Amino acid sequence: MKSKREREDEALIKVGGGSKKGGKQQKKKEQKDEGDDYFSLNIDLLNSCSFLKISPPKKENLLTWLTDLRAKIDYYNQEGEKRLKEEEEKILAGELAEDAEQEKE
Question: Which one, of 43, 40, 42, 68, lies nearest residue 54 by Cα?
Answer without folding.
Answer: 68
